[in-house]
């Protein structure tokens, strides 16, 4: 599904984001990426989202070179991916319902479909009662669940989660990871970065370890080893 | 397409209401700008009206000899009226000239007694000639002068007062030209400054939403969908500010009315505001909407990858 072909990224200040990364992520996989801060995890995710361009090499989504996608087609490409961040990045002046509906509106879905799916997905993440709350009225765990709902509502092929449990307590961390497992079980590919050893060890799925912009370990059923 | 347009307008309207503080500051800055643009319009009308009043006071007086025939003077009047530079010629007969003189000196008994002692009317007929532009007086005066010289001793013209007033007329012509040019340049400069201030305020308001814009891009929103609500917001800033400005102008011009009556030939600025409300409405509201929409368009463009 995703293929990194010898990808390097050197920033303007000569710092190395990625160095000769080659890896493949298959459909329906659950892949965790671990490493110290600055190891290149976020750069790798940004490459998939086409937020960064590689200095060398190519990144493919299915058979498409992501960085050859024309600007006007980028929104269409991004609708194949659901993104979740550590800091939630919800639209602050929209309610939980509107945040999720927005992702559907931009995809051109009709009102009836939006109403049905948003309600359903909010029930799924356990926030049926808080759909009219604004982000500042929600706890960290609730905000992250809204972000997850927004990421999955368009039934994307891939979910990218950049340290999604970084701001959550253990209980919310557990619940969020359970949600990711459920999403993956339903057939969506999940790529997760985290510093949480407990999360990685409990998942018992594929783990890619990065260091200095390189992939130093790639285990099918790995644990958190730095 | 219709659904998207509806969603964009709805999102823009909701954001305008929910970001009340940001909206309020943008609207207030825009009120200042639009008020300023309105003041420029009023000043320009004031200047135009004052210049017109001054212009109306400038004319060339052609004095005829006392023994000239009325028919000759009227024939001369017709010749002058045919000139393209001439806008109006007023005929003052000998009797009328005498009446005017008496009225002007009604409190000066010595002058009136002297006049009575003369017996005959010592004043000749007069033609007051008005040109379309003050710069055209010279060519009219030259024409009159040529007529005068051509007829030599038989000339019925006694005196043309243009050459006595030439300096004053020239200075006035220059003053009017400079006044108009400086007025236009100042208006453009100040309007640009106030538009830039508004643009920066809107840019700042949108800068606070730059994270939102990046999130919108990541969830797959296209540029129209991201930019649209901000532009609707900008249009709403302009519309609201325009309405507030027009309301503010009502008491403002009412208060200034008595001070400006002399400039508007007795009518005052309030009457000007009421009579030209339609035009002012279009300019103020139109400027507000245009400034808001263009500023938002440019400000969002900075944050779109």
Summing up helix and strand content along with how strands pair, one would put the structural category of chain B as: alpha+beta
- The beta-strand count of chain A equals 10
**Beta-strand content bin of chain A:** 25-35%
Quaternary structure state of the chains depicted: heterodimer
At the third CATH level, what is the topology name of chain A? Answer: Rossmann fold
Computed Rg of chain B: 31 Å
CATH architecture of chain A: 3-Layer(aba) Sandwich
Radius of gyration of chain A: 17 Å
Total domain modules of chain B: 2
Major sheet size, sense and barrel closure of chain A: 6 strands, mixed
Order of helices and strands of chain B: HHEHEHHEHEHHHHH
Number of domains of chain A: 1
Order of helices and strands of chain A: EEEHEEHEHHHEHEHEE
CATH superfamily of chain A: P-loop containing nucleotide triphosphate hydrolases
Low-confidence regions of chain B: none
Quickly count the helices of chain B: 11
Computed structural class of chain A: alpha/beta
Distance between the termini of chain B: 24 Å
Q: In which order are the strands of the major sheet of chain A placed?
A: 6-7-8-3-9-10
Provide the low-confidence segments of chain A as ranges: none
What can you tell me about this protein's structure?
The complex is a heterodimer of chains A (226) and B (305). Chain A has 226 residues and is α/β, with parallel strands linked by helices. In chain A, 33% of the residues lie in helices and 26% in strands. Chain A has a single domain, classed as Rossmann fold. Chain A contains seven helices and ten strands. Chain A has a six-stranded mixed beta sheet, sandwiched between helices. A four-stranded antiparallel beta sheet of chain A has the order 2-1-4-5, covered by helices on one side. In chain A, a hairpin with a 2-residue loop joins strand 9 (206-211) and strand 10. In chain A, helix 3 crosses helix 4, helix 4 (111-124) packs across helix 5 and helix 5 packs parallel to helix 6. The longest helix of chain A has 16 residues, at 170-185. Chain A is globular and about 45 Å long. Chain B is an alpha+beta fold. Chain B folds into two domains: 2-54 and 173-303, no CATH class; 66-155, Alpha-Beta Plaits, CATH 3.30.70.3040. Helices cover 75% and strands 7% of the residues of chain B. Chain B is built from eleven helices and four strands, in the order H-H-E-H-E-H-H-E-H-E-H-H-H-H-H. Chain B has helices at residues 2-18, 20-57, 70-81, 94-104, 109-118, 137-151, 162-207, 210-218, 223-260, 269-275, 277-303, and strands at 60-64, 86-92, 126-131, 157-160. The two termini of chain B are 24 Å apart. The model of chain B has no long low-confidence stretch (mean pLDDT 86). At the A-B interface, helix 2 and helix 3 of A face helix 1 and helix 8 of B.
């Amino acid at each position: 599904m995703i293929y990194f072909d010898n990808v390097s990224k050197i920033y303007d200040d000569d710092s190395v984001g990625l160095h000769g990364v080659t890896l493949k992520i298959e459909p329906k996989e659950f892949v965790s990426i671990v490493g110290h801060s600055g190891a290149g995890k976020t750069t790798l995710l940004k490459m998939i989202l086409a937020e960064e361009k590689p200095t060398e090499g190519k990144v493919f989504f299915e058979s498409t070179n992501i960085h050859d996608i024309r600007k006007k087609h980028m929104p269409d490409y991004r609708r194949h991916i659901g993104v979740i961040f550590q800091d939630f990045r919800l639209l602050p002046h929209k309610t939980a319902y509107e945040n999720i509906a927005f992702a559907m509106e931009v995809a051109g879905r009709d009102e009836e479909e939006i109403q049905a799916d948003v309600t359903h997905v909010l029930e799924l993440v356990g926030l049926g009662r808080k759909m009219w709350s604004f982000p500042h009225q929600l706890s960290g765990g609730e905000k992250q669940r809204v972000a997850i709902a927004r990421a999955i509502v368009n039934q994307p092929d891939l979910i990218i989660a950049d340290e999604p449990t970084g701001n959550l307590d253990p209980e919310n961390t557990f619940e969020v990871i359970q949600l990711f497992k459920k999403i993956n079980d339903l057939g969506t590919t999940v790529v997760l970065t985290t510093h949480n050893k407990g999360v990685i060890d409990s998942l018992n799925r594929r783990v890619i370890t990065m260091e200095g912009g390189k992939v130093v370990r790639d285990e099918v059923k790995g644990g958190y080893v730095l | 397409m219709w659904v998207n347009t509806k969603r964009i307008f709805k999102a823009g309207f909701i954001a305008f209401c929910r970001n009340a503080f940001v909206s309020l500051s943008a609207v207030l800055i825009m009120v200042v700008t639009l008020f300023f643009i309105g003041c420029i319009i009023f000043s320009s009308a004031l200047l135009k009206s004052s210049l017109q009043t001054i212009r109306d006071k400038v004319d060339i007086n052609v004095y005829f000899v006392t023994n000239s025939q009325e028919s000759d003077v009227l024939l001369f009047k017709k010749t002058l009226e045919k000139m393209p530079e001439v806008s109006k010629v007023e005929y003052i007969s000998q009797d009328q000239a005498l009446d005017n003189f008496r009225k002007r000196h009604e409190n000066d008994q010595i002058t009136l007694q002297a006049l009575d002692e003369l017996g005959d009317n010592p004043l000749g007929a007069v033609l007051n000639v008005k040109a379309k532009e003050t710069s055209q007086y010279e060519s009219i005066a030259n024409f009159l002068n040529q007529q005068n010289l051509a007829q030599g001793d038989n000339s019925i013209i006694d005196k043309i007062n243009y050459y006595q007033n030439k300096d004053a007329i020239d200075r006035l012509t220059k003053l009017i030209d400079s006044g108009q040019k400086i007025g236009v340049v100042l208006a453009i400069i100040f309007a640009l400054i106030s538009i830039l201030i508004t643009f920066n305020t809107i840019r700042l308001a949108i800068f606070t939403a730059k994270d939102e814009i990046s999130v919108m891009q990541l969830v797959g929103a296209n540029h129209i969908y991201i930019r649209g609500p901000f532009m609707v917001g900008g249009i709403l800033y302009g519309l609201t500010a325009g309405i507030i400005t027009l309301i503010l102008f009502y008491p403002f011009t009412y208060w200034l009315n008595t001070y400006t009556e002399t400039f508007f030939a007795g009518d005052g600025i309030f009457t000007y505001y009421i009579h030209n409300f339609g035009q002012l409405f279009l300019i103020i509201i139109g400027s507000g909407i245009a400034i808001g929409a263009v500023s938002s368009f440019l400000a969002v463009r900075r944050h779109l990858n």
